Amino acid sequence: MNTFKRFCAVASLAAAIAVSAPAFAGVDSDLATAENAYAALDYTNALTAAEAVLAQRGLGHDTLTRATRVAALSHAALGHGEQAKQLFTTLLQYDPDFKVDAKLGPRFAEPFAEARGYWQAQGRKPGMEVQAVIQWGQPGQVRVTTQDPLSIVKRVVVGYRWAPARDYTTANVDPGSRQVDVPANSSGSARLDYYVRALDSKDNAVFEDGSPESPKSVTVNEPEKRVTEEKKSIFSSPVFYIVGGAILAGAAAGGYFALRPTEYTAATKGRTVVGAACGIERCQ
Amino acid sequence: MSTKRASFTFAILALTTVACAAKEESNPPEIAFEVQFPSAQAAAVTENVKVYAFAGGSCTDLIKLRQTKQPLPASTAETPLITPCQLYEGADNKFDLALNQDYALLAVGQVAGQDVFVGCTVQKAFGSTKALPIALTFIDNLQKVRPTTCTKLSDKCAVPARCQ
Fold it and tell me: pTM for the full model?
């Protein structure tokens, strides 16, 4: 019985790997196919492959941007002005700095110009700002602000871990200005790894700052320990004052007895000195 | 105000210092005597001398007691037995006497433990005065001194003695 259960578990894991691996491999393969086809001026196949990628869920920001770019350019090349405009508009959301090469001609330039005009009319640039506010030994925050005029972003995922931990703690917040609390670091860790992803309805990363595989990092430094015992001045020692006071008192007393005036009283005794005389003269 | 306070404090300190001044007796004045031998030969043959001080004593009585071999009254001070050479050299010949009394100083010279010379004087002068002689004479007519080659006490006191 146990052997059967173990077999089923292994078989299930193998099946999951077998299904998911081709899925990721398919995204990468389709994206490569799309970009290669576009480079080969095979816009139809490029569009097909790009749309196949965009049909997937959970795309990374780079994959999402590249697939949208191929799709937009392919539509433009094929003369699908409206679709090209929509995708350029979306692409400028993902990559506001994208520009179409002016040499490509009006098929490309016109829908792109309309898309850029849309964003210029919005008056604000899409994007996401992330700020990690961390201090040694204190709880911190990861602050996130999303600018999403198209309302594509549905949720924001914030993942963090204090190295050397491997697993991330994740938090989901709504778009807009939000903050996620981060607990204080333990004494053994000084680096916070984090990533923030703004996801659309298909969990594609519209905006991305770091990733689980390549996180952003913030290092906090342990404040230098203050010397609790300041270098003691001799003047702050009570022993100094006791010894010094004793020396001064002794010096004062000694000086007093040494320098005080002496009052001589009249002698009360005389001291005899007896010599010898031989006859009337002192003995020779 | 502060000047007055300082002056007052200084005055107190000065008075305290004077009040607590060390009180010390002046050095004792010298009372000089000379044991006056009849001659240098007499000094040379005398073996030792002893000087007694008696407060208010009578020289006549003291000499009489010594001549009659009676005990002397308690002396105020006295020297140990000292030789004429020690007297000559100034050794072991000092003792203190209170200045508020007069003293009779009796000197006795001996040879072979027998009194040969005696003399006495009353001390009344104190301070740096001429040494008061205590003139020795034979204690009685029975005493004689042996012959000696010494003409000077210094010859007797020389080491080795230059005379006998």
Answer: 0.47
